[in-house]
């Protein structure tokens, strides 16, 4: 049984349908990516998955139908989203942002301290800036903080919305190395990206989304060599 | 005006201002966490004073009925909404939080009222009794419109204030009360008499502001409140429920307002509708702080108190007129300089 499954999921803003009949699944331990052009509905899909937008169809997570559950409950169950806008606590320190990431397991003091240490090992730039306000971080550091904060919730499945957005090529590579390394932690990942090449190189499985629907799906290794995708998504986009 | 009189008026004004500080901090706290400008904190302060006075006179405070009615209403609304959304499993929890917990102080006061209760215990009972009012009102009135604009929330808040004044008349009656002094001490410092009560007020304002500061700086609950205020979506993504942080904020704000009510009751005669001017002046302090800054709010509230003290000396009949007409330009200037910021919050 997949860890996260969308079954004919639809998302609308009033009359406008942003996502139509999307079905896809993420198995435990997998990295699955959804690529597609601007306005395809990728962000809408993830926002509905975490419960910040209502959706039609059915979303199951860890064997439970979560379609109607509130966001906070989904987070408690081990679903986590790093949103496109990052949504950091800008006038709080890096340390406090990470600490609040562990809000759902606030009783576990020892565990929180250990994981905080691990995050600082994984992101040495954050360790140096632990007292700095999140709002004063650079774009790349913010992205790392958003990732670190989401990891502090101890997710079973992490959803990332365009982790490479607005970052320089060198940092993008660093971020994707980190994403690939999360697999060892046993975290499954649903990755939404414009940077199709980097995403497909990291993922096990890929879906291509256009105007609210999924058009192609397949193992990432096959998609990356698919001539139809090379011309539209992989051509001019070297990503590094 | 001699410098002695000026010094005396300043000290008196600081004590009055300290009362406004406590209420204003609650207003800012609630606004940052929930975007509600909770006008009725003045009423909460007045109701605390009236409850304390009733206990002193060995009567059953009207607050008992008020809290009981609100608790029953909130429980009904919450249960109905849980059943409608298919969350029947959460009903026992709702009963605990909306019925059992608010009824504990009600029951205690019910049992204790009429007897000889020592002053510290009377104060604790009065505070415990008013704590549930604001969270219950939040559940009944504000949660159904939590996504509304700041203006809608403010309009409802003002309406709620008038409703509370009406309920105040119903539950407390029209008589004014003044409670027993907390201390009779008077010190003469450099020829100026300073009442122990004034010192008590200022010390209490400092202690409670300090506690609020420590709560935000050092506890996870405080940080989760701050986080909700900074970024509601971000907080929800961390599993922080804005309704719960809202409840904590209402409890804290009520405690601050309650303490101010206890402190002012021996100095000023309190009526069921005394909350209006208290709340309005605290609100002015909060506006000076742009509804976001705790330190500026505290300074602003102190200034309102000092201004009021001097205005009362010049002409006691016109003191409110003088205070508010001097404040209008200040408020205009503040709303001008913080306009863009409020748009951010409104978005
Ligand atoms: N709040 C909203 N109200 C109305 N329409 C919206 C809203 N948010 C998104 N949309 C529309 O829904 C569609 C899908 O948007 P979405 O943000 O999900 O796309 P996306 O694939 O994430 O795009 P991008 O790659 O640019 O981030 C777009 O046409 C967008 O204009
Ligand atoms: Mg997007």
Describe it for me?
The complex is a heterodimer of chains A (240) and B (347). Chain A has helices spanning 42-50, 71-77, 94-101, 109-122, 124-128, 139-151, 169-182, 196-202, 220-223, 227-234, and strands spanning 4-13, 16-26, 31-35, 56-61, 64-65, 79-82, 157-161, 188-193, 205-210, 213-219. By secondary structure, chain A is an alpha/beta fold. In chain A, the strands form 2 sheets. Chain A has a 6-stranded mixed beta sheet, sandwiched between helices. In chain A, helix 3 runs parallel beside helix 6 (139-151). Chain B has helices at 3-34, 41-56, 63-84, 91-112, 119-130, 133-142, 150-172, 196-218, 220-230, 232-237, 242-264, 275-288, 294-314, 319-337, 339-346, and strands at residues 186-189, 192-195. Chain B has a single domain, classed as ABC transporter involved in vitamin B12 uptake, BtuC. The longest helix of chain B is centred in the first third of the chain and has 32 residues, at 3-34. In chain B, strand 1 (186-189) and strand 2 (192-195) form a beta hairpin. Helix content of chain B is 76%, strand content 2%. Chain B starts with a helix and ends with a helix. Residues 340-347 of chain B have low confidence and may be disordered. In chain B, strands 1-2 form a two-stranded antiparallel sheet. With 347 residues, chain B is an all-alpha fold. Chain B is built from 15 helices and 2 strands. The chains are: A alpha/beta (240), B mainly alpha (347). The interface between A and B is medium-sized, with 28 and 18 residues. The site of magnesium ion has 5 residues of chain A, from helix 1.
